[in-house]
Specification:
Elements: E1 4-10, H1 14-25, E2 30-33, E3 51-52, H2 54-59, E4 67-77, E5 82-92, H3 94-107, E6 111-113, E7 118-124, E8 127-133, E9 137-146, H4 153-157, E10 168-177, E11 192-196, E12 205-213, E13 216-224, H5 227-232, H6 239-249, E14 257-269, E15 277-278, E16 281-283, H7 299-317, H8 326-340, H9 344-356, H10 359-371, H11 375-381, H12 385-390, H13 397-410
Parallel strand pairs: 1-2, 1-9, 2-6, 4-11, 9-16
Antiparallel strand pairs: 3-5, 4-5, 7-8, 8-9, 10-13, 10-14, 11-12, 12-13, 15-16
Helix pairs in contact: 1-3, 1-7, 7-8
Keywords: FAD, Flavoprotein, Lipid biosynthesis, Lipid metabolism, Oxidoreductase, Phospholipid biosynthesis, Phospholipid metabolism
Pfam family, one: Lycopene_cycl
Protein name: Digeranylgeranylglycerophospholipid reductase
Length: 414
């Protein structure tokens, strides 16, 4: 078995698999080490609700046959109101999507080793030159990429990431049938992805219903272990209890039944990224972390981070005399902030402010969104100050003062 490659990638998620696709297409020798067995992949890592948008599908050549349902709209809900925005989307069968990325990369020459748990970097003269996996197995590369998500066995040991517990978000999702998709008094959820802000259901977070056809949908929730979770949460409730509570109290779900074997759990960190790279090494995907802090979309951002890392590796490897030192890999950080997560600090602050608000403020937000033009949410979502100002009111001053006090006390999210 070959043990020397141009690039070694730990993790076969969307970020790692896309990085491998791009590198293999350029003719590089690349190997991906994946913890799970190939027969079961990705049973353990089938953790995403898999809502994405046509821009991702087109940019990365994703086929229609991994899509469960194409959607026409995004719905935002508060406890008593809702807002509908026409926005095409796609709800993926996440396992099929991940298997497609692996198969497509293999066609271009990427090698995959399953049942390969990466444990530590191999260091020479202070630089990473390879990794150990499964205890005593070794593989070497000119560049090493950590795409393992929050586990980050390489990035942590290289002091590239520092994932804080208070910024840890957890989520749970089931697939249901028998859902009343067009219940009177609620928005019509046919061909829609719905996100709900409601501390009763997800303190310090949000819940969702993503339509997957007929009377079926993905139903889940997530929250950050933040001050809002401790303020609004129930001391004895687990995340499973919150989902059970929603299913028991929402009339749209009263006749719904869970589909066997269709349960997903996941986690990510909602914080500013630290260092993204060092000599001969890059961290991508949720290792960084990369998930959008405001609405949790991660697939497109992870794919883009894999692509930016591949482009960076190519910029060094295509010139035989350019060493992949930290100085020469610095372009990855530039590309990450420009193309993967622009305005990330502003969006993190918006996230913290949004989840600080009480439920009644969410109802008012829906009324404001219905009153304003269709572009206001889009511009506010990108951190536009003028658009954000349109969503604020004089009686928000106590909320803003509380937010400012927390920021002065605890700094930014990191």
């Amino acid at each position: 078995m070959n043990n020397r490659y141009d690039v070694v990638i730990a993790g076969a998620g969307p970020a790692g698999a896309q990085c491998a696709r791009d590198l293999a297409a350029r003719g590089y020798d690349v190997v991906v080490l994946e913890t799970e067995s190939e027969d079961e992949f990705p049973r353990q890592s089938n953790k995403s609700t898999a809502g994405t948008f046509p821009s991702m599908m087109a940019a990365f050549g994703i086929p229609d046959d991994v899509v469960m349902q194409y959607t026409d709209s995004v719905v935002l809900e508060s406890p008593t109101d809702h807002f509908v925005r026409e926005q095409p989307g796609a709800v993926l069968e996440f396992a099929d999507f991940k298997r497609y990325l692996v198969a497509d990369g293999r066609e271009d020459g990427a090698e995959y080793r399953f049942d390969a748990r990466v444990t530590a970097p191999i260091m020479e003269n202070g630089e990473i030159v390879g990794v150990t996996y499964n205890g005593d197995q070794e593989v070497y590369g000119e560049i090493v990429v950590d795409a393992t998500g929050p586990a980050a066995p390489l990035a942590k040991k290289l002091d590239v990431v520092d994932l804080e517990h208070e910024n840890h978000a957890i989520g749970i999702e089931y697939e249901f049938e028998g859902i009343d998709v067009d219940r009177p008094g609620f928005a019509d959820l046919h061909d829609a992805m719905m996100l709900r802000l409601d501390h009763e259901l997800a303190p310090g977070g949000y819940s969702w219903i993503f339509h997957t056809g007929e009377d079926t949908a993905k139903v889940g929730l997530c929250y950050i272990r933040n001050e809002q979770y401790h303020q609004y949460g129930r001391e004895s409730y687990s995340i499973d209890d919150y989902l059970d509570h929603w299913v028991d109290t929402d009339p749209r779900l009263q006749d719904a039944t869970r589909l066997e074997g269709k349960m997903h759990r996941g986690s990510a960190h909602i914080q500013m990224p630290g260092q993204l790279y060092t000599d001969r090494f890059m961290a991508i995907g949720d290792t960084v972390p990369t998930v959008d802090p405001l609405w949790g979309e991660g697939i497109h951002k992870c794919m883009k981070s894999g692509r930016m890392a591949a482009a960076t590796a190519d910029s060094c490897l295509k010139h035989g005399n350019v060493e992949p030192t930290a100085e020469n890999l610095e372009v990855y950080e530039t590309l990450w902030h420009r193309d993967v997560a622009p305005n990330v600090r502003a969006r993190l602050l918006m996230t913290k402010l949004l989840y600080l608000a009480p439920d009644e403020r969410y109802d008012r937000l829906m009324a404001d969104l219905n009153r304003l033009d269709d572009d206001t949410l889009a511009r506010a979502n990108k951190g536009n100050p003028a658009a954000i100002a349109k969503l604020l009111h004089v009686d928000d001053l106590p909320l803003l003062a509380r937010f400012a006090k927390q920021e002065l006390t605890f700094g930014d999210l990191l």
